[in-house]
Amino acid sequence: MNINALSRYFKILENEEKAKFLKAKNSGLLDKKIKRAFDCLKNCELCERKCHIDRTKGKLGFCQLDDKMYISSAFDHWGEEFFFVPSFTIFFWSCNFSCQYCQNWSISQRVERPRVITPDSLAQMINACNCKNINFVGGEPTPQLPFILKTLKYVDKNLPVIWNSNFYMSEKSMSLLASIVDVYLSDFKYGNNKCAERLSKVKNYFDVVSRNHILAFKDSEMVIRHLVLPNHLECCTKPVFDFIAENFGDKVIVNIMDQYRPCYNAYKHKEINRRLEAKEFNSAIKYAEKRGLNYIT
Fold first, then answer.
1. Which of 102, 81, 260, 250 is nearest to 164 (CA)?
2. pLDDT of 79-127, one tens digit each?
3. Cβ(152)–Cβ(125) below 8 Å
4. Are β-strands 221-227 and 253-257 bridged in parallel, bridged antiparallel, or unpaired?
5. Residue 100 belongs to a domain with what CATH number?
6. Given Cys at both, which of 9, 47, 90, 295 links 74, Cβ 3.0 to 4.6 Å?
C-alpha cells in the first residue's frame, strides 16, 4: 500500500498543517457555509433524492429528519482503517438509502431511538476526545450536514475531518463540503444503477456517486471502501475497480472488504442470502492487482 495518498492527513496529525475546517473558520468561510447549509433545510436537496420539503416546518422527506441533529452514538472507535484509529466517530441516525443487507439497519432504518444533540454539545465531546480525527458517519451524515458544519464552528482541536459516507450527496452538498473535509471515506457499493435500485432503493446511483468521487478527489485525499457482495463480482466489483483505476490510479487507497453477511432483508434476495465465498474475494483481489489499485484488505 502506498500511504503517500494520505500525506496531508499525516501532516495534520503532526501539526505541520491545519485541518481545513480551522482554516475555513478563521477566514469566515465556515460561517458562510453554515448559513447556506441551513437555508437548504427549507427546501431540502442535501442528497440526490432532493425531496424539496421544508424541514424547518416539520415536513419529513425520505430520511424522516427535521430541523434537529440526531445521533445514535459517539465514541473512540478502534474498528476503522488502521491509519485512522483511534477515530472519534459520530454515528448519525437515519439514512437516505434502504440497503436490503444493511448491517446497521436498526440505525439506518430508524428502528432504534436516536439522541437529539446540539452542535455545541457535540463539539464539547470532540474537544475532549483523544483521537486522531473526527469521523462523521451513519446511518448517513449527509442529511445532517448543516448541523455538522455548525458543530465544527465550536471545535478548537486541530483534528482532520473524515467524511464517511455513501456518497449520494447533491452537488450543493459537495460544494458545502469543499475546503472542509480532509479525507473522504466513501462506501462505493455498486458498479451500475440497476443493482443499486434493487438492493438500496436508490436511482441513478452510479452516475451520482462516480461524479462525487471525482469532485472529492479534486478537493482532498480519499479512501474508498468496497464491500464485495456475493454474486456481484462482474456487475459491481469489477466496474467499481475499473472506475477507480481509470480516474485515480494509485492516488487513492481502496479498502477491499470481505465481511459481508446477510442481514436485515437480505433473505429476500437469493443472490446475496449467503456469506461471501473465499474464491469470490480472491478473484476481487486479483482483479484489483490487475488494475494496479493501491489497496488494503
1. 81
2. 999 999 999 999 999 999 999 999 999 999 999 999 999 999 999 999 9
3. no
4. parallel
5. 3.20.20.70
6. 90
Q: What is the pLDDT of residues 30-51, one digit of tens each?
A: 999 999 999 999 999 999 999 9
Residues in CB range of 267: below 8 A, 6 or more apart:
273
pLDDT of amino acid 12: 98
Query: How buried is residue 162: exposed, middle or buried, by Cβ count under 10 Å (0-12/13-18/19+)?
Result: buried
Look-up of cell digits 456517486 = 209
Q: Work out the average pLDDT over 127-139.
A: 98
pLDDT for 24: 98
Cα 117 to Cα 40, 67, 123, 144, 176, distances in angstroms:
20, 12, 10, 12, 22
- Got the DSSP string for 89-106? EEEES--S---TT-TTHH
Alpha helices per DSSP H over 71-220: 105-108, 119-128, 145-153, 171-177, 193-200, 205-219
Q: How many domains does the chain have?
A: 1
User: How sure is the predictor about 4, in pLDDT bands with cuts at 50, 70 and 90?
Assistant: confident
Burial class (CB in 10 A: 0-12, 13-18, 19+), 50: middle
**Which residues lie below 8 Å from residue 181, measured CB to CB, with a gap of 6+?**
20, 161, 162, 163, 216, 219, 220
